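Sample pair:
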Amino acid sequence: MAAPASVGSIKKHFRGLKDPRITGRSRHLLIDIVIVAICAVIGNCDDWRDIELFARHREAWFRRFLRLPNGIPSHHTFARVFSKLDPRAFGRCCVAWLRAASELVGLPHIAVDGKTARGSAGSALGPLHLVSAWATQAHLCLGQVAVDGKSNELTAIPQVLALLDLKGALVTLDALGCQKALAGAILDKGGDYVLTVKANQERLLSDIQETVSKALDGELAKHQVAMITTTETGHGRQEERSYTVITNLEGIRDRAAWPGLKVVGMCCRTRIVNGEETTECHYFIGSRRLGARKYAHVLRNHWGIENNLHWQLDVSFREDASRIQERNAAENFAVLRKLALCLLKRHPEKQSIARKRKKAALDPVFLAETMTGVAKVEKI
């Protein structure tokens, strides 16, 4: 049987995590509780009872690299510790570990978006809504902030941005985040922005639509307009996306009020599914001069957060079915899910995330490889 060969390098990233329990009255080490929980969530566990059951069946394996002075903690202990643990501090430790393990130096694209954990609706505060920052290329969650509902998402976005090092990064936000103050905040931290524009910015939207119409009619200089069309087929559908990126901002009446504004544009998506054709157009603004191909890549990756993060959390980790309602515990379990997802995506084996979770539950060698990111794990 194998155990993680570099567990020491994992532990060092959690040494600064403050133990919320009363000093001298704890029977279990915080680092043991954290590492057991991470392994268990990778290994197909979705609540505290699952984690305890998994750990008891893997106790001999865990003892190869954890102290466990009083055996495996009960599910009550896991629930109590994670209900007291600071989610942001825990999240920072997880991100530091993953960034070091993945040798990430720069993060060229960060998508910020929100998701509601519907199973937490029994809480007096309502369902937990988390706004997350997702590094699209690295498949890494860089941080999250909890709010009471989607209507309050706007208040969380500045807090998420404050957690991040944005130097050199391109940050994408949906229409709710299309705000002058947020654009300025991203620029102030050394990043650039791409913001979706909808009816909540009616004047801006109208100006962009008029500018795009002029571009399509050939009324703007060619060097001020870039276009690209991509096609994709599969799963019974055909999809065509046409991107138009414009650097002529003369028709944007409030252009001086938008910090760093350099381009406006449109993406039109035409889908044919079962013979039925639908078309929808999205508009955006950006602070970085890029070609149409690069804007197409960035916008597609932002929309991909639904499949690469939110869909995986719901389908592979059953997040919407979770009944953890205590706020800190629910937020920390969300951190565990995202950490597990990142680690499982990093493993090169060609399997779905759900199957990888099942394999991790059954095969300690595969679980160790997932934790350490190495193809060959040292036998001990």
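The longest strand covers residues 263-273.
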